[in-house]
Structure formats: C-alpha cells, structure tokens
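Regression test case RT-17, inverse folding.

Input:
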C-alpha cells in the first residue's frame, strides 16, 4: 500500500542497545557456546507469547526473563509500531485512511468517499458493501490496526517516544492496543428526548473493551461523541490523507525513514445497535 514507508529500525535498534546487552551476558553465562547476540534477545522473548498461544499454557520460555525485562520488551513493541505505522512515521497514518472512510460511510449511510486504498469495485456495490446493516465485522492485522488508530486520532502522544528512555506516562502501549485478538468496536447509538443527552446520533469507540476519550470531537465523559462532530473530526481521512498518499509512491527515499524506528493476528469489529 505504501512502498516508500519508512521503518522503525533506527528507534528499535537504539532501544535494543540499551536493554539487551545485560540480558545477553546473563544468558550466555548460563549457556556456554550459545554465541548469542543482543539482536537475538527480542526473538527469544517472542517465543514466550507464541509458544504460550500454541500450547494454550504458560511457556517455560517466559521464566527466562524478569518483569523488568518484560517491560523493556513491551517498550520495544511500542517503538516498533509508533515509528513503523503510527504517529512517528510520516506515512503511517495514511495507510489507515481507506478504512476510516469506509467507517464514515457505514456510520452515515452514505457512499464511500475515498481516493486512497479502497477497492471501489467492492465499495461501490450495495451487495459487497451494504450500508443498511446493524452489524459489520472486519478482520485485519495489527500493523494495519495501528495505522487505523493513528488515522482516527486515537492514543495520541503529547511527544514522540524516546528510543533510549521509556516514558512511564505514555498513552501509546502496544499491549493495550494490539494484543492477540485485539479489537476495536465502533458503536453508533441513538439518544431520545428522555435521556440526559441531546436527541440524536452518537458514536463511541472501544479498544479492547476500553472506552476511548475521543477528545478530538468533544466527547462526553462516557465517551459519547455526536455523530456530526465525529465525522467533522476526521478531516485527515476525508481529505484523503492530505497528500501523504502521493509520497507513498514518490521516487526517492522517504525523508522520514532515517528519523525513526505488533506481533499478532488481530481483528477489527464494527457494530452498533439500531
């Protein structure tokens, strides 16, 4: 979708240089001849979740590392996605624009308006892309979900992640965004005159069951945002990524690649009651 997108390797390599050497030395001392490199540590740590899922039981690989080391591994994932497909990557958000425009079409019952990644053969047909359903389910990958979150404006960081020092107060945490079977649910709700809200249509977004604040569209404390405000807030998607898509196919090196640096199959669910 975006041949010129940069990578997160500069940030992730910087963080590996910080946290991995001590782990490498400790394991090498217990396993003479293993010839481990610090770059092997992330792969060894990845065996814990994958082996756990494969056998449906805690993997013994997990016990090789301390809680502090697992926190470092978590931050490695945060950097990977932030600088790979999120806000830290110039061409990260634009990869989620097509999906956001499809979401707006479903929320408003209007045809898809998009000139980025959508398949118009499918989206222009009421058979393959109906707009009159009460429940929709879409399936994707965590990398794509990160781009979608960023295009929507979710998990916005006040500043870029530091590749050498984790920010304990950061809002960007992969473990909360794209765990195994991660999911985003967008609800369209209707309020009548008997409630505490003004009558009309509202939108609420939940990521892994956590209600998102949606401050970008002046949502209430309960996460409810007026549908019209939500649509208005999505100007980046409605303007087709504001020219970023063209940079995906421009000749030459992505100017943001040198500036920067999950692992799971995940699904995105959209559903709302009538």
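Golden output:
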């Amino acid at each position: 979708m975006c041949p010129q997108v940069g990578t997160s390797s500069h940030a992730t390599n910087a963080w590996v240089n910080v946290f991995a050497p001590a782990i490498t030395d400790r394991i090498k001392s217990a396993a003479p001849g293993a010839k481990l490199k610090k770059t092997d540590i992330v792969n060894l740590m990845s065996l814990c979740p994958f082996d756990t899922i494969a056998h449906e039981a805690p993997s013994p690989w997990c016990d090789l590392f301390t809680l502090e080391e697992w926190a470092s591994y978590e931050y490695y994932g945060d950097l990977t996605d932030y600088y790979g497909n999120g806000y830290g990557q110039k061409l990260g958000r634009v990869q989620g624009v097509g999906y956001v425009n499809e979401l707006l079409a479903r929320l408003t019952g209007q045809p898809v308006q998009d000139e980025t990644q959508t398949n118009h053969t499918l989206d222009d047909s009421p058979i393959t892309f109906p707009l009159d359903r009460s429940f929709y389910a879409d399936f994707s990958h965590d990398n794509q979900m990160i781009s979608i979150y960023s295009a929507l404006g979710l998990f916005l960081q006040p500043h870029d992640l530091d590749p050498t020092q984790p920010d304990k107060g950061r809002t960007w945490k992969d473990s909360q965004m794209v765990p195994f079977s991660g999911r985003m649910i967008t609800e369209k709700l209707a309020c009548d005159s008997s409630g505490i809200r003004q009558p009309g249509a509202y939108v609420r977004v939940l990521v892994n069951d956590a209600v998102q604040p949606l401050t970008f569209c002046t949502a209430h404390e309960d996460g409810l945002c007026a549908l019209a405000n939500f649509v208005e807030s999505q100007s980046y998607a409605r303007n087709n990524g504001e020219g970023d898509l063209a940079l995906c196919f421009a000749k030459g090196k992505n100017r943001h690649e040198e500036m920067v640096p999950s692992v799971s199959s995940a699904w995105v669910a959209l559903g709302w009651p009538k």
